[in-house]
Design brief:
By secondary structure, this protein is α/β, with parallel strands linked by helices. The chain has helices at 2-6, 26-35, 50-62, 72-76, 78-82, 102-111, 157-163, 190-194, 203-219, 237-249, 268-276, 291-296, 307-315, 336-345, 364-371, 398-412, 415-424, 430-447, 453-462, 464-506; strands at 41-44, 67-70, 93-95, 118-119, 170-175, 178-179, 199-200, 223-228, 256-259, 279-287, 320-327, 351-356. Helix 2 (26-35) crosses helix 3, helix 10 runs parallel beside helix 11 and helix 14 packs parallel to helix 16. The structure holds cobalamin and iron/sulfur cluster.
């Protein structure tokens, strides 16, 4: 949405609301729209939140304000939003595919009251046109109100403002350096959506964006962490290395996170450059430790036998991984959680995340399961339920799959595993261990929502031993330099006293 905002013709003002960061119900949203005199509402959504997006769209349209919808889900099933599949209509217009070029046109049409139903990015001959990303618009981060995107819980901000330089305000800023991934994993929408043509921004444009963000963070005494949202940030290793070198040469390093597939992390030089450019966390779609499962979903380029070496290569440079697994693949049987957890325990610690296999519309997986009559909820998104299967697995039941998923999450973030993770990195600086522990607490919340103070309190009590250990060591370290300073001052004083008495005696 930051990108579309910056592509909006200058005479229009754009207000951004992230439904995750600033949730509103239908009435609140409509009141906001009326109060701000908004003339056109654009809604983007992933499949999992589209039912909510439709509810919002219905309420906005009922209030007489036109709605345009776009994004991956709308592109995959546009008839649904337009009510052409027998269901109710939710949008006045839909933008299919990448809307970089169609959005300004949509806004102009809406301003004239001539909104069309479907906007498709095509060239003069009617062929789909993908934005080249060169040139790339400037996103004016300095001018945007990022308050709704501050990741630090409100209760913790005053304390951190006083004691932790800049950590009261932490922003995870999404930056794309390129689009597209040609690998075509069976469950993934990316190859279908962005096409297998990979496009990159120029190094210069990415470096300039980082430099501006760095300056902004320094000025505001806040922390900026960059999320390179490319689906496979090292898909062209040569180009990624050249970008990272340019970032280092320009001094544009900010802590960053990116998604890179395991096969591309064999390259030592690449990992060296990731470290030097301040890459901290790499999201790796491991999916499964079973090569049969990986072959089934067209992801045989993942080699489970090398996962440990890849994670070790990263951990040696203080880079850790968010390791993502899918439960319910065709070769999974009861006990898959335990088998996976055993493997994970033998690797350097990371942040494992687990999801059930999900047939997203328009993916090869969806078509295969549909043909095989295995979709139990063919329109699962309209009755969205977190972590619930929408198809029958082959070698276990749906209930068994849910139980495996639950086991994987429960055990991965148990106080015992959290303590073990800290033990594994016991020789690392305290800063790294505190960060690791904090990330574990937050990542647990993906599956076990931690929305109340009580939930956090329970979590703290359960992990009290690890917290106590870190806190006592941290306080010791914090006081140590102070003690050193005190000792240095005392010895300076005694030297001065001694010198004074020597001078006095000689006089
Ligand atoms: C960043 C990201 C996240 C972030 C989201 C942060 C945020 N709030 O933005 C995080 C890490 C939290 C995340 C989580 C998840 N994600 Co995600 N994520 C992405 C990622 C990598 C980048 C999104 C992005 O900004 N792209 C760049 C912009 C330019 O592209 P775009 O968003 O598609 O927008 C363009 C067009 O779609 C269109 N457009 C989009 N919206 C609108 C709206 C209007 C009005 C118009 C006109 C046009 C328009 O115009 C834009 C410019 O061309 C995409 C993959 C990808 N490369 O897109 C996956 C992706 C969106 N995620 C996906 C999934 C599945 C998830 C999870 C469900 C994973 C999981 N199993 O838990 C979770 C859900 C989290 C939740 N509860 O909200 C899928 C969605 C598939 C689908 N059909 O819904 C994607 C496509 C990845 C994939 N492998 O298939 N994700
Ligand atoms: S490597 Fe990742 S982004 Fe590329 S097709 Fe596979 S899952 Fe999708």
């Amino acid at each position: 949405m930051f990108l579309l905002q910056s592509l909006t013709p200058a005479e229009h003002e754009v207000l951004l609301i992230d439904g995750n960061a600033r949730p509103m119900d239908e009435r609140q949203l409509v009141n906001f729209i009326i109060e701000k005199k908004i003339g056109l509402v654009g809604i983007g959504s992933m499949t999992r939140m589209v039912a909510r997006a439709y509810r919002m769209a219905d309420a906005i349209r009922a209030a007489g304000v036109p709605v345009v919808m776009g994004g991956p889900h709308i592109t995959e099933v546009p008839d649904e939003a337009l009510g052409r599949d027998g269901g109710p209509r939710h949008a006045d217009a839909v933008a299919l595919g990448e809307a970089d070029e169609t959005w300004p046109q949509i806004v102009a049409d809406a301003a004239r009251g001539e909104l069309k139903e479907i906007y498709t990015p095509v060239d003069e001959s009617g062929k789909e046109r993908k934005p080249s990303l060169q040139p790339y618009p400037t996103i004016p981060w300095e001018k945007l109100d990022l308050e709704q995107f501050n990741m630090v819980p409100k209760v913790a901000r005053p304390l951190l403002e006083r004691h932790a330089n800049g950590w009261h305000s932490v922003h995870l800023i999404p930056i794309e350096s390129g689009r597209g991934c040609p690998y075509g994993c069976e469950f993934c929408t990316v190859t279908g959506f962005f096409g297998d043509s990979i496009r990159f921004r120029s190094n210069e444009s990415v470096v300039n964006e980082l430099l501006r963000l760095k300056k902004h963070a320094r000025k505001n005494r806040s922390q900026v962490i960059v999320f390179f949202i490319d689906d496979n940030f090292a898909i062209n290793i040569k180009r990624t290395k050249s970008l990272l070198r340019d970032i280092i040469d320009a001094g544009a390093q900010l802590p960053w996170i990116a998604q890179i597939s395991a096969n591309l992390l064999r390259d030592e030089e690449l990992v060296d450059l990731i470290e030097a450019s301040h890459g901290k966390w790499i999201f790796i779609g491991m999916e499964s430790i079973d090569p049969v499962n990986l072959a089934d979903v067209n992801k045989s380029f993942n080699k489970p036998a090398e996962y440990a070496a890849v994670l070790d290569r990263l951990a040696r440079r203080d880079i850790y991984a968010i390791t993502s697994f899918i439960v319910g693949l065709d070769n999974d049987t009861p006990g898959v959680a335990d088998r996976t957890l055993d493997q994970i325990a033998s690797w350097p610690p990371g942040l494992p995340v687990f999801g059930q296999i999900t047939p997203f519309p328009s993916t090869p997986l969806y078509d295969r399961l549909l043909k095989a009559g295995r979709l139990t909820r063919p329109k699962h998104w309209l009755e969205f339920a977190p972590y619930q299967m929408a198809n029958t697995p082959l070698k276990m039941s749906i209930d068994q799959t849910h139980a495996e998923l639950d086991k994987a999450w429960t055990e991965s973030y148990s106080p015992r595993r959290n303590a073990k993770a800290l033990e594994w990195i016991a020789d690392k600086p305290i800063k790294i261990r505190v960060m690791h522990f904090a990330m574990r607490m937050f990542f647990r919340g993906i599956y076990f929502p931690q929305m109340t103070k009580l939930a956090w309190l329970k979590l703290i009590v359960a992990n009290r031993r690890s917290i106590f250990k870190l806190a006592s060591e941290g306080i010791g370290k914090w006081r140590a330099p102070k003690k050193e300073v005190d000792l240095a001052a005392a010895s300076r004083e005694s030297v001065q006293r001694a010198e004074g008495s020597v001078r006095a005696r000689s006089a």
